[in-house]
Every structure is written in structure tokens, then in C-alpha cells.
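#random but structural
TW: two for the price of one
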Amino acid sequence: MKDTFEVPAMMTKEDVTMMILSAKKTAGLTWEEIAEKIDMSPVWTHSACMGMNGWPQDKAEAIVAVMGLPQEAVSVLEEPPTKVWEQSVPTDPCIYRLYEIVGVYGPTIKALIEEKFGTGIMSAIDFDMQITKVEHPKGDRVKLEMSGKFLAYNSW
């Protein structure tokens, strides 16, 4: 890809996200293809492209090269995430269903985690997720597999 982006005086994560989305659309790439080119998972790649993860330098340089972004984007991608998102329930049907799952099964997930591990939480930082398509006679199914490090609550 060719570096064709106008570089703002003070580039932000939002600027870089828009550049990545524009380059992705122009190139006709999928998240899986982009992730493969930088040797990362598609889940992590998308999340990091949306500004929800800070990039290690080598991966920031790789995504900048793959997407044809200006070199100034590397340091922006390396910045720690702010993890800012809307706290209200979203109206997008797919994202809403994930909220619904947590609303219905959240207390169950918490109870079962505590029975198996003790009182604590599952990390969303030391975390991995896979999304796969499972063929099914009643209609294809979405399989989400999430794995996060258990973090026990500390008493101090």
C-alpha cells in the first residue's frame, strides 16, 4: 500500500484508527488477512486497531507498513489504551446480544468462576479470544472462546 494519508499536526489514536479503517476498505482486506500479515490474532489486531490495546513496537511498525500509514503512526499505536467506550447499552444488534449474554449469564459465570478458582476475576488484559464459525443443521453458529488469567482479590 502507498502512504497517502494527510498527517495531522498532533496525531491521535482516533486519527490512526480512521486511517487503518480507510486503508482496510481501500485494500479490500479482512481482519484475518491483516492479522496474518502482522502475525497476530484477528481479535487482538482489530481491538488494537480500534485503540483498545497498546502495540509493541515491532507490531506497530508492521501494521504501519502493511496499511501504508505514515511513520508518525507508530508512536501513537504504542501509546497505552484509554479503554473509553459508551457505558449505555448499545443499539447495534450484535453488540447488544453480547450485553444480553452478560446480563443473563453474568452472575452464573461469576459464580462458576468463584467455585472453581476462588474469589476473583478473569483478566481482560492477560486475555485471549477466538471466534470461529461452526456449521450446524439449524443454521451456522458463532463460537466465542475466551481465556483470561484468573486474578484473585487481595486482602490488605
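TW: number two ↓
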Amino acid sequence: MALRIGDEAPNFTAQTTEGPIDFHQWIGNQWAVLFSHPKDFTPVCTTELGYMARIKPEFDKRNTKIIGLSVDSVDDHKKWSKDIQETQGTAPNYPMIGDADLKVAKLYDMLPAGVSGDAKGRTPADNATVRAVFIIGPDKKIKLILMYPMTTGRNFDEVLRVLDSMQLTAKHKVATPANWKQGQDVIIAGSVSDEDAKKQFPQGWKAPKPYLRITQQPK
């Protein structure tokens, strides 16, 4: 069955470039970004892994761990890291899951459950659906799912933007409008009555329509 937002993130144990992990224990009480790649030594993913390493401090600020996955062995990941360092200027500074038996890829519905065998001999085209981003909350529930095509590199600045929105809306009864960025006005959630909104948002709001109540971002 396909995973959906709100489902519990499937737990697993795996070897990574930073040692063995139990996924839920590794997340702990933090947020997590799990992002996957179709194959080691592929060009687009090389740029993605390098970029994520450069912006890791931004995730650290947001109490968020990042972890990569590719349908290859941990040894291959370590060899690939040298290429990433050489070409992108920064090697992965976060764990990469070894998934040579395809277990995690199938568990997260990145590859069909019926796929068999191991990573050796598989091509990026065989693993085309293994190009996903999952954001998982401290409650171990899936908060966001993104799937990208093979030829389009992911926008990880957008992942940070969405993370800001989700962390804000988890704390306050607000929603964020189209293209919202940190510090901009937000929308009071429809579940909040005007009476309660007066208490929660004493600064007031603008309401071009009764259902569209715009207010300053809560601190």
C-alpha cells in the first residue's frame, strides 16, 4: 500500500556510512529528512548530495536530521563520497543508508514490492522511482512526500521552506499562503473562531473574505 502523509514512517534497521541505525531511534525527538537516489555515481545525485552537505547547518538550526539512501552498498557510498568532495567541494556530512538488498526502497514504496535481487547489475533506469524526499516529524509521522523525475535535480531550498512552514504550523494554529517564506504574514487556521482568534492573535488581522484572515507570523 502506498504511503501517505500522516502515516507512521516505516521503521527499519540498516547499515549506514556512520554505522548501524534503528531509524525511529535515530530520529529521536527531532525532525528528519530522508532523501533517496537511484544509483551511486550518477551525475544529478552527485550535485544534490554535495548541496545538502553545504546547507546541513540550516537543517541543524531547525532541529532536523538528514539522511540519504541509495540502492547500493555502504562501501560504494564511501567511494562515491570522494567524487562528491572533489566535484562539489563538500562530501556528505550526514549518514547514507546502504540498501543493496532494496529493503528500504521497497518499504517506502520507492520500488515495487515485487522487485527482487540486489543492487549489483541494476541501472538508474531500473531504480527510476527511487528519487524521493520524505519529511518525518518527531512523532514519526510522515509530514511531506516529494517524488522527482530522473532528470530534474531537487530544490532543497524548497525543502527548507516547507520545513519552516510545518514547524510553524505544528506550534501555532495558522497556515502559510502560496510561496510563503519565514517572517511573512500567515493565515489564521479555519478551526479557530473569530472569538478565539482575538485571544491568540491580539495584533489583529486583515480579512478580505471571512474565511481568509491574514495576520503576522507568530513568534
